[in-house]
Design goal:
The chain contains three helices and 35 strands. By secondary structure, the chain is mostly beta strands. Strands 2, 30, 31, 32, 33 and 34 form a six-stranded antiparallel sheet that branches. It has a five-stranded antiparallel sheet with strand order 1-7-6-3-35, with no helix packed on it. The chain has a four-stranded antiparallel sheet with strand order 8-9-10-11, with no helix packed on it. Strand 28 and strand 29 form a beta hairpin.
């Protein structure tokens, strides 16, 4: 049973989101406690909305903030950090003007209504990152990625990866750990939507594309690589295009919840990028999946953080006000089905705790994985109003949860698994923490097998880094 309790003093998370972020150049990071593990060698990259206000104006939704990239580099001599805004054309134009000019996910351009027809949707480059051998991609839902320098985080410009030519490229690519192939998608809008599916080589270059016709204009944020399949669960959220076209509503405000449609599951063959099956099941909404894989009997299992409806979008909009009023709560679920017949074998909740941002060891993506790492609300938190204050490891084999409660007024970002450079059985969990007690940000490193112990290392960051969305680990 989910419970809510009142905090003993006002919540501090707004101070980690609302003020515009401050950039910083390459900075040696001070060790506050412990030591950097000898096997932690590589770079952590994180992305998220870094600026929600400009010229006295506030964005319409948390998803509208300009992207800011944090890079933490771990070497034999220590750790360095760097933080930069993604220099998109929209960001540069609005910085020069000192005000907002463009529409976004949850906002229309300021000013008279006729001004709305002359301004394009701004690519905010604010959702996730993909580390390639020679560049870092800042990812967003509705357009091409921006390429950045891996070390300096200087923005190099839009990148079509040699094949998407203006098509959208989503924020949740999946990399096959055995082949290095990268799979992703983007949804094109028209009278009905088109699901564009991409396969890239290890360098990121597009080498194959597929296209699946969609029913209406759904919102698709994430998908699963599961053995031989790519699986999309399309929740019953549909875009009402008319008010969007006539500029009366933003994209977010034009999204409608239609539970009578159910959730549609589309299964795609990863080799041919063609559809294997398509079927419907119960209505729910999910932003994120943990992992997917095939079993010996040919069935497919996938895990997701599942919401009852689409109230989560309203909750995320309320973030920009500094006060959450909508209690959209999600828990961890598992779906098992026959990919060829489309028969659902089992749907079950596997963790009854409010959670989000599920991740697995990157070496186990698309394969059976025992552990899922995620953000949790603390047991003592008012989960209707507070942010996640803990990280945890769920053991699918024993059905047990190992939890790291960071304490009151501390807020961790998505946990990222970093495999040890020397021991394949060893891993580290990295998270960036805002400490509202000291109004500061730190990087915390945990032994992945002992999350309930103290972090093995805490590193001070020179400024507050806004709470963001997604990150990735790039081995040295």
């Amino acid at each position: 049973m989910l419970t809510t309790l009142q905090p003993s003093h006002p919540l501090s998370w707004p101070k980690a989101i609302l003020p515009p972020a401050k950039e910083f150049g390459p900075t040696s990071l001070k060790v506050l406690s412990g030591a950097i593990p000898a096997g932690l060698r590589g770079s952590l990259y994180r992305n998220g909305p870094a600026r929600l206000e400009r010229g006295g104006q506030t964005v319409g939704h948390w998803f509208d903030g300009d992207g800011g990239i944090l890079g933490l580099h771990f070497t034999e001599v220590g750790a360095t950090g760097i933080y930069r805004y993604v220099q998109t054309e929209g960001y540069q134009a609005e910085e020069a003007a000192g005000r907002y000019l463009f529409s976004g996910y949850g906002m229309l351009p300021p000013g008279p209504i006729w001004n709305r027809f002359t301004k394009d949707l701004k690519n905010a480059a604010n959702t996730s990152v993909l580390a390639l051998p020679d560049k870092l991609l800042a990812l967003w839902e509705g357009g091409e990625p921006h390429a950045l320098d891996l070390d300096s985080l200087n923005t190099l410009g839009l990148d079509d990866l040699g094949g998407i030519a203006g098509l959208p490229y989503s924020a949740h690519p999946k990399r096959d750990p055995q082949t290095g192939a990268i799979f992703n998608f983007g949804v094109s809008l028209g009278k009905n939507g088109t699901l564009n599916v991409y396969r890239s080589d290890a360098s990121g270059k597009i080498c194959q594309k597929g296209a699946i016709a969609l029913n209406g204009l759904p919102l698709i944020h994430d998908f699963v690589l599961a053995g031989s399949y790519l699986v999309f669960c399309i929740s019953p959220v549909r875009l009402n295009a008319l008010p969007l076209l006539v500029k009366l509503k933003s994209f977010s405000d034009a999204l409608e919840w239609h539970p009578e449609k159910g959730t549609e599951v589309i299964v795609i063959d990863r080799e041919t990028l063609t559809m294997v099956s398509r079927f419907e099941t119960d209505p729910w909404y999910q932003w994120h999946f943990g992992n997917g894989y095939s079993l010996a009997d040919g069935s497919v299992v996938l895990e997701m953080v599942r919401y009852e409806d689409f109230q989560t979008n309203r909750r995320l909009k309320e973030i920009i006000t500094g006060e959450i009023q909508t209690g959209a709560i999600a828990t961890l679920w598992q779906l098992r089905f026959d990919p060829k017949s489309g028969k659902v074998i089992e749907i079950q909740q596997i963790l009854d705790r409010s959670c989000e941002f599920p991740v697995v060891n990157p070496n186990q993506v698309g394969q059976p994985s025992r552990f899922t790492y995620l953000n949790l609300h603390r047991k003592a938190a008012d989960i209707r109003k507070d942010h996640f204050g803990a990280i945890a490891r769920f053991d699918h084999q024993t059905e047990t949860l190992t939890e790291a409660d960071l304490g009151e007024n501390r807020y961790p970002m998505e946990p990222i698994y970093a495999p040890d450079a020397h021991n394949p059985d060893q891993g580290w969990i990295l998270t960036v923490v805002y400490d509202g007690n000291t109004d500061s940000s730190e990087a915390w490193i945990y032994n992945a097998a002992y999350l309930d112990n103290e972090p093995v290392c805490r590193l001070a960051l020179p400024v507050v880094v806004p709470l963001g969305f997604h990150g990735t680990w790039k081995p040295a």
